[in-house]
Design goal:
One of its GO terms (cellular component) is microtubule. The chain is of the alpha/beta class. Helices cover 17% and strands 12% of the residues.
Length: 187
């Protein structure tokens, strides 16, 4: 018999019981590694109005949803899920500074441009294959720290230096790529 997935509401209740805190007042909420895993982000997350860092990593979530009410959210961790696109992220575009979304199946970056305050994007091991998608990151003026290794685009470059040169030439705003600082020539 298959287990029913954990709902966000159940995960939040479990977190409150474990921590002895009220979720709606908490700044950091970690709902990763739920068993059974969370499969859907839902409206229960919107009640977390004071949450600045939300972790839903290592579940079985396939799309970003239910976070529109999270008006304090700065860091969203969704690594190791089944997310296919960034649709839904725009609801937290005003406040989000860091998006940790490695090990998913994202192949397009449509919509990333609304993330004007995004400073950190960890999205290694996804499915980005084309420069046209990568170039959408130019629409994120605050982006400084990018981890992109493990995407087909990266792996298809002749070597690491070619990758770093191509990426840093396209994204003048970044100061760190794949964990290594970018040194630029200054005039």
């Amino acid at each position: 018999m298959a287990l029913k997935p954990t709902t966000c509401k159940e995960a939040i209740a479990r977190w409150e019981k474990e921590k002895g805190e009220v979720a709606t007042e908490a700044k950091v909420i970690e709902l990763q590694f739920q068993w059974p895993p969370i499969e859907k982000m839902d409206g229960a997350l919107s009640t977390l109005v004071n949450c600045e860092k939300l972790s839903l990593s290592s579940n079985m979530i396939d799309k970003i949803a239910g976070i529109a009410g999270m008006r304090s959210l700065k860091i969203l961790s969704l690594g190791r899920n089944y997310i296919k696109s960034l649709a839904g992220i725009e609801t937290v575009a005003e406040t989000l500074e860091e998006l940790w979304i490695s090990y998913n199946t994202i192949d397009k970056l449509r919509g990333i441009g609304v993330m004007k305050n995004l400073r950190v994007l960890y999205m290694s091991n996804n499915m980005i294959k084309e420069w046209v998608e990568f170039n959408r990151l130019q629409e994120c003026p605050a982006l400084r720290d990018l981890v992109f290794i493990g995407n087909p685009l990266c792996e298809n470059q002749p070597d690491v230096e070619t990758w770093r040169t191509q990426a840093s030439n396209r994204l003048h705003q970044i100061t760190k790529l794949d964990g290594i600082p970018i040194v630029r020539e200054t005039d």
